[in-house]
Structure formats: C-alpha cells, structure tokens
Write a structure and sequence with these properties.
This protein is 17% helix and 14% strand. The protein has 83 residues and is α+β, with helices and mostly antiparallel strands. The strands form 2 sheets. It has a two-stranded antiparallel ribbon.
Length: 83
C-alpha cells in the first residue's frame, strides 16, 4: 500500500479523528475505537481504553465542550481527579 493512501478515511472526520478521550482524558489523541457502556450507548475512545469493561465506560465524561489549552486546563485537571 502506498504511504499516501494510509489514513485517508480520517481526512473526512472532524479534526482528523483526534480529540480528548472521555475515559482517560488524554488530549489530542486519535479516537478510533468504540466501547459500549451498560446502557448500550457507544462511546468513541482511544486505543488504550478500547478494552475497558462496560462499568468503566459508564464513567465516561462528555468532552464536547472541553478544551485543552490555556484557561481550560484547570477544568481538565479537576475532571481527571474525579475519574
């Protein structure tokens, strides 16, 4: 496979598939894997968190409005302590 074709499917995904993992709260990481929580809802997570159980996936934090730069770093650190 040519190197120019690798990851082409990620070009159409917002932020090229990168974001903040809702379980481990790692920032700017590729969110390519899905995990199902106990309610049957699917959550997109990073590679490290792809093998978690449903109980752990229930503790996932909503990261839609969570920024990772500047003044928002304090909010991220507070959420890491509660998880």
């Amino acid at each position: 496979m040519a190197k120019t074709k690798r990851g082409k499917g990620l070009w159409n995904v917002p932020s090229k598939g990168r974001g903040t993992c809702p379980i481990c709260l790692s920032t700017r990481i590729k969110l390519l894997y899905t995990v199902t929580n106990s309610e049957g809802k699917q959550v997109t997570v990073c590679k490290k968190c792809s093998s978690v159980e449903a109980k752990v996936a229930d503790k996932a934090v909503n990261t839609v409005n969570l920024a990772f730069r500047g003044k928002h770093r304090r909010v991220l650190n507070q959420q890491k302590q509660t998880v």
